[in-house]
Amino acid sequence: MTKLVKRRSVKAGLPPGTLVYIGDKEAEQAKISVIDYDENEFHERTLSQIRECLAFANKTAVTWVDVDLVHQVELIEKIGECYGFHPLILEDILNTDQRPKVEDFGEYLYVVLRMLACNGDNNGIFSEQISIILGSNYVISLQEREMGVFASLRERLRSGKGRMRKLGADYLAYALLDAVVDNYFVVLEKIGERVEKLEEQLVSSPTPDTLHEIHKLKRDMIIIRKSVWPLREVIAALERGDTSLISDSTRVYLRDVYDHTVHVIDTLETFRDMVSGMLDIYLSSVSHRLNEVMKVLTIIATIFIPLTFIVGVYGMNFKFMPELEWHWGYPALLLFMLGIVAGMMVYFRKKRWI
Amino acid sequence: MTKLVKRRSVKAGLPPGTLVYIGDKEAEQAKISVIDYDENEFHERTLSQIRECLAFANKTAVTWVDVDLVHQVELIEKIGECYGFHPLILEDILNTDQRPKVEDFGEYLYVVLRMLACNGDNNGIFSEQISIILGSNYVISLQEREMGVFASLRERLRSGKGRMRKLGADYLAYALLDAVVDNYFVVLEKIGERVEKLEEQLVSSPTPDTLHEIHKLKRDMIIIRKSVWPLREVIAALERGDTSLISDSTRVYLRDVYDHTVHVIDTLETFRDMVSGMLDIYLSSVSHRLNEVMKVLTIIATIFIPLTFIVGVYGMNFKFMPELEWHWGYPALLLFMLGIVAGMMVYFRKKRWI
Amino acid sequence: MTKLVKRRSVKAGLPPGTLVYIGDKEAEQAKISVIDYDENEFHERTLSQIRECLAFANKTAVTWVDVDLVHQVELIEKIGECYGFHPLILEDILNTDQRPKVEDFGEYLYVVLRMLACNGDNNGIFSEQISIILGSNYVISLQEREMGVFASLRERLRSGKGRMRKLGADYLAYALLDAVVDNYFVVLEKIGERVEKLEEQLVSSPTPDTLHEIHKLKRDMIIIRKSVWPLREVIAALERGDTSLISDSTRVYLRDVYDHTVHVIDTLETFRDMVSGMLDIYLSSVSHRLNEVMKVLTIIATIFIPLTFIVGVYGMNFKFMPELEWHWGYPALLLFMLGIVAGMMVYFRKKRWI
Amino acid sequence: MTKLVKRRSVKAGLPPGTLVYIGDKEAEQAKISVIDYDENEFHERTLSQIRECLAFANKTAVTWVDVDLVHQVELIEKIGECYGFHPLILEDILNTDQRPKVEDFGEYLYVVLRMLACNGDNNGIFSEQISIILGSNYVISLQEREMGVFASLRERLRSGKGRMRKLGADYLAYALLDAVVDNYFVVLEKIGERVEKLEEQLVSSPTPDTLHEIHKLKRDMIIIRKSVWPLREVIAALERGDTSLISDSTRVYLRDVYDHTVHVIDTLETFRDMVSGMLDIYLSSVSHRLNEVMKVLTIIATIFIPLTFIVGVYGMNFKFMPELEWHWGYPALLLFMLGIVAGMMVYFRKKRWI
Amino acid sequence: MTKLVKRRSVKAGLPPGTLVYIGDKEAEQAKISVIDYDENEFHERTLSQIRECLAFANKTAVTWVDVDLVHQVELIEKIGECYGFHPLILEDILNTDQRPKVEDFGEYLYVVLRMLACNGDNNGIFSEQISIILGSNYVISLQEREMGVFASLRERLRSGKGRMRKLGADYLAYALLDAVVDNYFVVLEKIGERVEKLEEQLVSSPTPDTLHEIHKLKRDMIIIRKSVWPLREVIAALERGDTSLISDSTRVYLRDVYDHTVHVIDTLETFRDMVSGMLDIYLSSVSHRLNEVMKVLTIIATIFIPLTFIVGVYGMNFKFMPELEWHWGYPALLLFMLGIVAGMMVYFRKKRWI
Which of C251, C284, C317 is the last residue of a domain? Predict the structure, then answer.
């Protein structure tokens, strides 16, 4: 199951700006891919050294540097040196449990997003941090792990079709944001399917597993919520902010992403409402079942306990029990007991138990 | 049952502005009906090509283009070309799960509404998207499905009575809004009837079906809520916005629609409160019933179990049991047991169980 | 029981401003009473035609027109004609399920209030609409039904004592508002008494009726809430609004009504909190009772079921059961069973069940 | 128990400004004590007539008039005449269920507070109204009942130590406020003790009394809440208000009282959270107990009911039952039943019931 | 367990500014340590008299005075005298249950924080007050108890590495804040571990202890909440405040601490949501268990009670019972009873009980 808190405590006591990666370290090498494009030209390379990026820095073309696996502290340090970023940004890139935020440093904007992904089937949702740094003619995106959300974007750039190659770095940053938010819809749909499956299960045959699925759904929605709510503010800040890095035509598109984010939040809240309602339904169907069980027990016990008592009476060994001598005693008693059963039945029907 | 989420994921990875219809595609042809009117003249036609609309564009008269079945991507594309709409608008028209919103593009306003409809009797509520584009002398309304809410409006235009023919396109747009909100009252009334029926059921004979009806009511109200809450903001934005497309006299009418929307929200919240209360009542009536059942069981068991023990005692086959030899043993025992029953009865009455 | 929604749907499809009364129509004639007063003079008449009101219109004295039973569409139409009111106002007067609001039309203010009344003893609360139109020297009040809240006000005007006769139409409008809000306290007191009665019942002997009374109380409070919350905004808008129809000295009094309204809301919320708490208490007292019942059952069953087994053993008809032949077998067994009972008792006491 | 609503309905229908005391009238005479002081002089008197206060009015010294038992309508009327207060203030003084508020009348400020007091041990909390009128060189405090909160203040004035004698009427008003808020901490501490006692009880032995104590605590906290939440706004209004009656140096002290009020609210909300949690704990401990009881019953019944059946079989009087004739039939049966018991035990242990 | 309220009542009635320590007094001597540093120089001393601090006051270097154990009233009084602090500050330092706040006195800022610490393993969390006074070239920190959070800071100052020695008193104050907030993450991680442990326990084997652990977790989170929520406002006020004591470069760092605080709040709220969900899970798993227990009881009772009745019938001693004489009576009856058991089994399977 997804960890709730990352081990941020390793940083307590260290001076601010100290670069420590708090996620799980992996053995693999970080991957740096650079795309440099304008309307006419397009270059794509995979680098081993971040320093080589600077070769693209002075051109008028837009440079997109995509770094996967940010756990390498030295790499992040070098990026900071090359581009002259504030040390707190570098710290935030490595502290991969940031909540989404945007910070305006004048010459560049620093945006933190959270990418959502499903852990296989029904196995919970986890979120990974994506940092985007937008400069005047470059965009640097840093992902905690390679997750392929930007693949279609890269394809669109390669093909050269559409608006994208004609527009600046701000449009590229928007496109990255859009790709992340579009991905939320994929996750939401999976959640929606689980909600609907749960609803059906609840009507047909609620089991304790239903309950645990409700709990898991709630947990997952809490994780999504933590990623999406602050994102709304981030995009609103980008759209309305007074930075000159984002052009007015791009702001129209940002408004569109904003609407999508609000849509995601809306849908999420709807799911939350529905899942809360389901818990009530589950609990009351459990207590309804208990009721049914108890009714069966009570009917059986109420009918047979008195009868058992009666036959017990005539099983006593008293010397002088006149009824035992009667010729029709036995059949008379059977009839009498039949009468009791009938009376009970009438009573239960009046009480609407049967 | 209504789907909770539309399949928006088909769009993930596509560039913004790509036109893909995300609803269920239907075989039928889209219907384009055009009404062109001013105080004196009135023309009504059904077109097969959107291009023919432009014939009406230059006149001073108000042109109302009503398009049903928006699922045809090419049609929407052509509308965009003819009138020069922003690609994001066209995308929103086809993404038929938008939340209500208004966007001001200077020369035209784009409004998204959600129309509510009942799925037969008690079979849940679904919502369809209606897009309205208001220009200086035209209104384009695009419905996901033909639902007849605008029929009476068309009739009023034809008859030529009332204010409508004398006023501009903004009044027409208001009238469309008003028709949609008036329709909410129809839906609310149905909900209200269901709430009252539930209330009666709850008092007379709560069953597990009551519970599922509560759940369905809650679900339906969540759907209505999702449509109505953002609508309030939309109408407020229209009323207070600084667009020149809406005249001051129309704004007075918009304030009236705003009041209606607030009224709808108010009533909805009242229903929500009541339905929440009903769940509590249901749950506690279920547990009250359990109590009743248990009391009957306990009374029966508490009376007869000890008696059965006693008769069991005298059913033992010990050689030496003096009581069995007594002449009055049997009737004495019967009396003794009668005494026990009486004592139990007193105890239960003291406990207020019977 | 009070209807939750009025049949507003009859209006769907009609053009805005169409006058249709949506409440229950009654056979009686509307009652128009006019009071015309200034510091020195006082005239009171009951009119049959609204047109006669205009005779008072040009004087400097304050004219108060009070119309009961607003269901007559023609009457409202004539009032509109005489005074030149906006058609939307006339529509709102007849749509008697408006939420409280104030609208400023420059020359006159339109205020909608809701009057609360109890339906006999414990039989629920209903609300009726009161419309007040305040002009420069006239006040028109329109009540859905005659309810007598303004009787004492009329008396004060007749007697000529106090500030009222010296002040303008705005003070009269304030006095009407104050009479309505004062009446809320009467309703709240009744609610308070019911809450206290419930509390006592809950401690002494909770029954399912307690539950239904809680439900009815909640329902009534929802109705009051719907009337009072928007009223607060209405009075705040009147107090702070920049209309010239209300003088500064009257605004001080409006602030006082505002305080009263806040007080009503406060008390209502307190009641809501308490009634919510009561439901919890009720539910847990029900489950406590269940517990008690189950304990009795368990004690009885746990003691006697094993004993019954034992006596069953010695009721068997095996040929060779040595114990049956023993002389002291029977009393020994009785002693043994007594020991079991004692052991059980010790166990139950340890468990704190008895 | 404290009444929830005062009988304000006696006022419905009376003109605004009518002076009627709505609390319980008491036989005693009102007490008027006057303290007149500046840095050098100090006079203290108990008056019988409010008119005598005016003797102090023209001096530069600060005059503090403290009136206990405000139920005497004539007294309040005379105060109003002497000082020329607005009639609505006099009405508010007598309507002793006001919510805390401040009103600025230019020459004087009118502040309403609520004093909290405990009704003996664990017997609920009630609140009394304190009105404070702050003029340029006088402070009038009016208490519903004599409660001694100002005793230490009076002592400090008499002793002449500290800042108080050197500062103006606004500092005196602050000191009164501070005394009231300090008293809240005393009440909160009692509440805190009750919360902690409840917590212990809940862990050791929850009884239905625990539930009623929770209910009483909640009720008391609702009453405190009603007094404290609006007080915060009152003090904020005093601190930030633009009245010239309060000097800047006193505002620093008001900020301190404000902090205390926020602290009171914070602590109260913490208690509320905890008490809500306790209800959950209580309810689940009740249902846990039910579980325990049911388990015992089930274990006993499940073991002995089948055994009783078996011994019943061999108690039948069929002529031809071969087992009865077997020599080892009886011990074999006993062994068989022992086996059943052992099997059951294993089953229960697997289910973790024993 | 941590006390919920400190004994603030000892202060009721005392004049504002009176210095009384409200925590538990301890025997130990207060510890005063002074660090005086600039880029080049570094002095560290432990003082016995606060007066000696003033020796450092006039230098341009930054002076950090750290006082542990603030319970000594005379010490605080002397600090007040030396630096000329407002008496309300001194009072707040000693009233160690303040909520976090910042007060700007022009020449110095007074900040109150709360430090969190765990009481051993799982034994609850308590919070201690830390006061920080920031002047132009000094920082005074006052801790209720020595807790070592500033140890690493002191170490960094000693080593002279990093930014810290080069920057002013405001950066030092920031560093203190940062150390406190970093420490929150340590506490949060412990909470997170407890939440995860609880979740596992809930799935595998919920016991009443689980419930008490949930209660304790909630309690601890309430305490953390009380410390962290107001801290957010404090840091926001510092960052945006218009004091000249904090330089712009430090404000960037404060924004970083602000982000951390929001992160802490976010995580805390996530935990709260999860723990609330757990309670529901616990309650419903308890009622599920009850259901299971009841089913077993019902199955056993429903099968054997009728059978016991039947064997009881043939245990009766009637003279004339023909069945008893039949040769195959006994085996026939056994078969008949087997049939009943089989029928029951089918019924239970249909009901999905087994």
Answer: C284
Last residue in a domain, options D284, D304, D331: D284
Asked whether residue B3 is assigned to any structural domain, the reply reads no
CA of B106, closest CA in chain A: separation in Å?
A: 13
CA distances from residue D68 to D29, D47, D72 in whole angstroms, order as listed: 9, 12, 10
CATH code for the domain in which residue E340 is found: 1.20.58.340
- Which of C182, C195, C284 is opposite residue D282, by nearest beta carbon? C284
C-beta atoms of E203 and A212 within 8 A: yes
Q: pLDDT band at D88, cuts 50/70/90?
A: confident
Minimal Cβ distance to A252: which of B88, B324, B329: B88
Residues on chain B touching C311 (C-beta within 8 angstroms): 309, 312-313, 315-316
pLDDT at D342 over 90: yes
What is the residue range of E38's domain? 8-284
Question: Are residues C326 and C263 both part of a single domain?
Answer: no
In this prediction, residue A1 carries a pLDDT of 45
Find, in chain D, the residue whose alpha carbon is nearest to that of C204: D212
- The chain-wide mean pLDDT, for chain D, equals 84
Number of structural domains (chain E) is: 2
Q: Tokens for A156? A: 């669109």
Q: What is the mean pLDDT of residues C48-66?
A: 77
Residues A248 and A312 in one domain: no
In a domain? residue E3: no
For B150-164, b where at least 16 C-beta lie within 10 A, e where not — what string?
A: bebbeebbeeeebeb
Same-domain pairing of E39 and E97: yes
Q: What is the pLDDT of residue B1?
A: 45
| CB < 8 Å to B16, chain A | 175, 178, 253, 256
In a domain, A3, yes or no: no
CB-based contact A286 E291, cutoff 8 Å: yes
pLDDT of residue E338: 92
B42: closest CA of chain C, how far (Å): 18
pTM: 0.81
Which long-range contacts (C-beta less than 8 Å, at least 24 apart) are formed by C209-212?
Answer: C210/C282, C211/B281, C211/B284, C211/B285, C211/B288, C211/C279, C211/C282, C212/B203, C212/B281
**Is E120 domain-assigned?**
yes
Q: Residues E134, E203: one domain?
A: yes
Q: Specify whether the CB–CB gap between A252 and B88 falls below 8 A.
A: yes
Chains meeting E at 3+ CB pairs closer than 8 A?
A, D
Residues A129 and A203 both lie in one domain: yes
pLDDT digits (tens, 9 = 90+) for B7-22: 666 666 677 777 777 7
- Report the DSSP pairing between strands A42-47 and A31-37: antiparallel
pLDDT in tens, E153-174: 888 888 877 778 888 899 999 9
Average pLDDT estimate for B308-312: 88
Chain E CA closest to residue A279: E280
Looking at residue C1, its pLDDT comes to: 45
C341 with C211, same domain: the answer is: no
Whether residue C269 sits in one domain with residue C190: yes
| Same domain flag for E170 and E245 | yes
Predicted ipTM > 0.85? no
Give E70's contacts (C-beta < 8 A, 6+ positions apart).
E21, E30, E76, E93, E94, E96, E131, E142, E143, E144
As a whole number of Å, the CA-based R_g of chain B is 34
